[in-house]
Each structure stands twice: as structure tokens, then as C-alpha cells.
Amino acid sequence: MMQRLQTAFITQGTPGDALMMGIDNTQRFTGLADIYAKARPTYPDAAIDYVMDICKLSAGSELADIGCGTGISSQLFAERGLDVIGVEPNFDMRQKATELSISKDSTKSGSLRLVDGTAENTMLANASVDAILCAQAFHWFKPDLALKEFHRILKPEGWTVLIWNERDESDQFTRAYGDAFRKLTEIDKIEGRHGASGVPLLTSEYFCKGELTHFENEQILDRESLILRAFSASYAPKETGIANRLKEMLNTAFERFQKGGEVSLKYTVAVYSAQKA
């Protein structure tokens, strides 16, 4: 069962390992759209309910999903009847989001349209959306410029919400999954603590009423899905020898922890929210 864990008000802090300087982050997932759409975890109903409630959203509300990727989060809100604008600079990811939205009847209750834009230049009009969502994306943005842009496109009293699925390595299998990456990649330098990247929202001059809330989440995976999940990451090794070694380590972990041919990756969902000042 998904469960809300805690709520905390934060007034100060420092951003996490947010921006990989010198790299075009809009192209990090080029070529990964298909595997990303199949393998990435979704978000628990309790977290979506919380966002709907705190942002005072209802059917017909307009939500900008910035860095929407293949539309995993966009679809969840379209299913709730919202008119979602998915802003995504990567062509491959944007095309996959379009394909999936066309193939799913679930968006009929709301809508989803895709825009070629960035967090710092969304291409949206002033005061045009009721809320902004960044799901598993804000750590790739330039926070100060992005928050200024969010303030511009939000309607008065609109809200911004930043969400991350962060692995909960208090769970043994989830820890083994992380250990496999740590032995073969620089995952800690690249991934860091994504959720800490939400702190700038709570301290921004453009926003007020900052709040951080956590929820539980899990992803049930068979052996094939586990490998797909691992290689959907931008930091997954591309060199054949290292990639094969990672697969071996993950298969070993799978055999150790599987029950009925499945394992569970555990997550803590960090939800940062703040209202337009």
C-alpha cells in the first residue's frame, strides 16, 4: 500500500547535484525513449491526489508538465481530466509521448499536447497555466532561470510541484541494485540526491508556502524488466564489456531476492511544492 510519510516546511538549504555543466542535458535521453517509456516507474495515486489537492486542480485545469519526457506523469494528470501541456526539448522523447497519448483512451477525460521548449524557455504565454509539474526532471534545469520562467507562465496564486522517485536503499534488493551501478559507473556523481535539487523552489523569491512531502512507492519487475529499468538510465554503461558486467550483477541480485520470479525496487517519492508569490 502506498503511504504518505511526512510533511516538512523548509526555509533554507542548498541545491543538490543539479546541473551537469558542459553537457547538453536536452540530448541525454536521445535513443532511450522506447526503453524509458517501458521501464521507468510511475507515481503512486496518493502523491497524485496530494498534488491535485494542494494545487486546487480539477477537471479542465491547465497543467504544464516541464521536461515531460515520454509523458509518464502527463498521462496520470490527463486521466484526472486536466488539460496537460507537455514541454519537452528532446525530439525522441516528445515523439514517444505523442504516440502514447494517441494510443491511450485514458487521456479522453482530459488532454495532452506537446510543446518543443525548455524549462528556461517554455514557449508558453504569460499567466497561462494553473500549475507546473516537473517529474524526475528539475535536476537537469538551471534552477534560477527555470523558476523565473515558471513564475512568468503561472496564473496568480498558481503552484509549482517538483517530484522525484528516489531509491530507498534501506531495502536490501534496492541497495544491491544501487551497489551494482556504484561498482561500475559514477552514478553518485551523476545522480546525486535528485530530491535535494528541489530546495531552490523552497527558497526562491518567486515562490512562497514551500513544503516538502514524502510518499512510498515501489516498482515490481521481472528479470527482463529489471534489465530494461537499469539501461533506461542516462548513466547506464554503453561499453559492451561493462554493460554485460552490470547485467551479470543485476541477474545475481535478482536470483538472490526474487520471489515468484519478481523483485521490488523501493522508492521514496519526494514532492516539493510552492505557490507563486
Can you give keywords for this protein?
alpha/beta; Rossmann fold; globular; eight-stranded mixed β-sheet; single chain; disordered N terminus; 35% helix; 277 residues; 25% strand
Structural class: alpha/beta
What portion of residues belong to β-strands?
25-35%
Largest sheet data: 8 strands, mixed
CATH superfamily: Vaccinia Virus protein VP39
CATH topology: the name is Rossmann fold
Supply the CATH class: Alpha Beta
Strands of the largest sheet, in order across it?
Answer: 1-7-8-6-5-2-3-4
When the domains are counted, the total is 1
Give the rounded overall mean pLDDT: 87
State the shape. Answer: globular
Residue stretches low in confidence (pLDDT < 50, at least 5 long) are 1-22
- Rg value: 18 Å
In total, the number of strands is 8
Helix content: 25-40%
Question: Can you write the helix and strand succession as a string?
Answer: EHHEHEHEEHEHHHEHHE
Helical segment tally? 10
Name the CATH architecture.
3-Layer(aba) Sandwich
Task: Give the distance, in angstroms, between the N- and C-terminal Cα atoms.
Answer: 35 Å
